[in-house]
Amino acid sequence: MVLRRRAPAVTVVGAVAALCFGAVACTPPGPSTPSPTPTPSASPTETELEKQTRLDFEAAEKAYRTFSAEFDRLRQAGYAGGPSAVMKATAGGPYLKTFAGFLRDGKGTTQKGSIKIGYVTPGSYSAKQLELGVCEDGRQVTTYDAEGKPLSHGVVSKLDLRVRSIDGVWKVWDGDDRKATSCNE
Questions:
Q1: pLDDT of residue 31
Q2: Model pTM?
Q3: CA angle 180–153–85, rounded 5-degree value
Q4: What is the pLDDT of residue 81?
Q5: Helix %, strand %, coil % for the chain, to 5?
């Protein structure tokens, strides 16, 4: 084993400093150019896929919220006909069929109060179908018969909705629900 003697750190630092000062001293004077200032970094840009995904989820949520508001409006008016044009524009498949049945079966009843949407969260995604997690608080909703007697009170429901792109338009298509005690659980 061969031991080598290292130069003291002070000597090395001094030599490096001397070289640096010497290089500056040898540079001919001239106009100084400012060093480039860093550009403030913007937030990362969305990829095209991220942007399309965000826009699709926004459109799907809007379809759900529009449908829900229209259904509430019709039930509060005591409407017992078929689905409205707004309902048909924002839903289809089994979901629309189920709510059309609620309207038909609700003949002679009215609803007071509206469902409060606790949250809407994005779930799985493809370009043709996506999922929304929803919590609806219907505890302020009461259904009355033709004489004004209360028939039922609403509940809190958590929904797993499937929303499909039909000819480029997002429509609530199907879903599953379960009762909950609140939207915070």
A1: 52
A2: 0.75
A3: 90
A4: 86
A5: 35, 30, 35
